[in-house]
Amino acid sequence: MVRPFTFMLVAVSLDGKISPRRSPGQPNPVGPGLISDEIMALHNRQRASVDGIMVGLNCILLDDSRLSLRAGEGKSPTRVVLDGLAEMPVTARVLNEDAPTVVVVSHDAPIDRVKRLEDRGAGIIVSGRGRFVDLPPALERLKEDHGIERLMVEGGGTVHRSMIAAGLYDELRFILCPFVIGGSRSITPAGRSAFWPRGEIPRYRLVENKTLGYYIYLVYKPEMERP
Ligand SMILES: NC(=O)c1ccc[n+]([C@@H]2O[C@H](COP(=O)([O-])OP(=O)(O)OC[C@H]3O[C@@H](n4cnc5c(N)ncnc54)[C@H](OP(=O)(O)O)[C@@H]3O)[C@@H](O)[C@H]2O)c1
Q1: Which of 44, 126, 132, 142 to mutate to test the pocket of ligand 1 (most atoms within 8 A of CB)?
Q2: pLDDT computed for residue 28 by the predictor
Q3: pLDDT of residue 55
Q4: Which pLDDT score is estimated for 134?
Q5: pLDDT tens digits for 17-39?
Q6: Percent composition of the chain: helix, strand, coil (DSSP 3-state, to 5)
Q7: Relative to the CA of 59, which ligand 1 atom is closest?
Q8: What is the CATH superfamily name and number for domain 5-222?
Q9: Residues in the chain with pLDDT < 70?
Q10: What is the pLDDT of residue 33?
Q11: What 3-state class would DSSP assign to 83?
């Protein structure tokens, strides 16, 4: 299958969470104010190293992320949002002028909602049915039609889970952060279900680890052999 080189980047707390469970409008306590400047710079460099950044709809609804480079360093990559039923508000900041935006919808997305996103300048990819889009063909279109050779997936946990289950990550990159989020219903890096295709727990091998102040940056690649 033709697809971009694809990796996930996730900031995870000492207790293995990526965010408290919140409703739209509830502020995120795990924001830039909590993260060190060194890690914010690492995050910015990772964004600058790719042609595309992908997230799920909840990241937009909860955080209204722009997904663009901070401090105007370099060219912002194409933003990609997975939004099966085209529910993203047209006021979302990810539709601003910073960079192109592509929304991946399914064949069940209402045409009028898709049209409203197109009128705001978004490119549209149609893949699969229902709320969850079919990822392999969508990634193929991102490479073939939008020139995305390197794709970083920033979240959230539901999207990472789908990507891992479909075997679409070349690397998993973690930033282990020196704080505890807590909460049994908080969001974890791979949410929804712990039952994997063919009943096999996905395994990885460590290829890089670096200490950055109180943080640890870790890179893993898929591992077929038993560690
Ligand atoms: N710490 C970090 O590094 C980090 C980074 C990013 C985000 N976050 C946090 O993660 C949270 C959001 O994560 P989340 O798990 O709630 O949601 P999410 O992964 O951002 O979005 C999931 C939604 O995306 C849509 N989607 C469409 N196709 C999909 C597919 N094939 N697979 C999966 N999703 C698909 C669905 O929307 P519908 O079902 O609504 O149609 C699905 O519910 C936020 O709290 C955010 O702050 C943390």
Answers
A1: 132
A2: 87
A3: 98
A4: 98
A5: 999 999 888 888 888 889 999 99
A6: 25, 25, 50
A7: 20
A8: Dihydrofolate Reductase, subunit A (3.40.430.10)
A9: 71-73, 225-227
A10: 84
A11: coil
Contact 89, 117 (CB under 8 A): no
Query: Cα Rg for the chain, rounded, in angstroms?
Result: 17
Tell me the best of 42, 54, 82 to mutate to test the pocket of ligand 1, counting ligand atoms within 8 Å of each CB and taking the most. 82
Neighbouring residues of 39: CB distance < 8 A, sequence distance ≥ 6: 11, 175, 177, 212, 213, 215
- Identify the pLDDT of residue 32: 80
Domain ranges of the chain: 5-222
> CB under 6 Å to ligand 1: residues?
10-11, 18-19, 22, 28, 55-59, 62-63, 82, 84-85, 131-133, 135, 154-159, 162, 187, 191
- Please tell me the predicted confidence (pLDDT) of residue 225: 63
